[in-house]
Records
---
Amino acid sequence: MKSFLLIIYLSFSSLLVLSSTANAEVKIPENTEITKALYQVIQENAKQMKAENIEGTMATIHSQSTLYASSKNLIARLFDIYELDYDIKSIKFIAHDEELAYVRVKQITKKVSGPAFKNNELDMLQIFKQENGEWKIWSQANMSVVFLDK
């Protein structure tokens, strides 16, 4: 019984922390050097993916990311099978510090050619980290995927 109450208390207290920070209004300036650089990385990544340029795409991803090698392999297979069109629908800058930056990106991906593929809108949180003074994609968390009719 005590452990059950402890679990409820911890869950409730974490909700209080989350709700108190979620209600705080934080304005992130969107015309700073950092936000401009992040915007350019996001656009360049989509451009290189659309051009099916593996090296160009990988140049936008941090080489020390734990997902670097698997991303490169996955992208190579993707380029072999499909031709896809990538459209950045929205970019929302969340926050940054000296080490990391967080950006919410909505991207629409549509098949141009290849086998069966579900066109989709991906809502993701991208995390960026600097490498040799340049912001690069470090990680990504997919928030939702909505499959489109066409």
---
Amino acid sequence: MVYIIFLRGINVKGVKIKMSELKKVFLDLGYNKVETVLATGNVILEAEEVSPLKLKIDIEAHLAKVFHYEAHVIVKNAMELEQMLKIPYVKDDHMQHYIILTEQKDIYEAIYQGYEALKDERHERLYTLEDALHWEVEKGYTLKTDFGKKLLGSKVFQSKLTTRSIGTIEKIVEKLV
């Protein structure tokens, strides 16, 4: 089965991991057809069909051991990623589109409630998807809106979610074909 592993918080804030080193770690764990996508901690791999939680626990433990940091990953399968791209959105030069990923459904609800309290309708919108959230934010405002600054960047959610641009998700899905 094909899985996509999203590492949270690498190549920012002092946790530097080369993609060649990351790929080697996954190969050493016994996964097949390992490929990294971009330098933001996106890994496509093949593994026996197991629970995403088991993959998460094994991968986080091994990453922490090898790279000496508190590793957090989000595990998705190919079908889940393809579903995320079925959203209607318009690419334009003024807006950025992000997918907010987590494995815990209650986190999506908490984030959406937080958005409702903090939203800046002039600069951002949040849409619920089946297995993710789609955040549309005006370019230049990603870290300026209260939602981006106070909620997405908060320690409460730090280990529970990660965000990727729609462009990154599209590049990953292209490699799955």
---
Amino acid sequence: MEDHQIISLFLSRSDDAIVELKGKYGGLCRSVIRNILHEPSEAEECLNDTLLGVWNAIPPAQPQTLSAFVCRIARNLALKRVEYHFGDKTIGFAMKDGVQNTVRLYEGGYADYLGCIVKLNRSGAFSTLYAML
């Protein structure tokens, strides 16, 4: 089914809109979400929240590019879950290229640095990039 047809289903408030959207973009949304949330049950719940978010957004929104619209909602919801789980805990320091930087630390050694969620190793250096904010 074409994007404009799926949007028409949403505008007419047809339950088939959710089924068609999940069939066409469910895999793409799962991929976006799983790159941010690594827990399968959290990712599946976030996908369901994404479908509900699209349902609530259309109407009034009438997106030009449905895939980008749906992925943006999925990404934002996944990032909200990261913030909810890790929460703002304390200020710490991280090393990047030999320069010490102030970062917000979360539980488990995660940090928000220049719009990225990163994992810090024991020396305070960045070891893994988790998500672009």
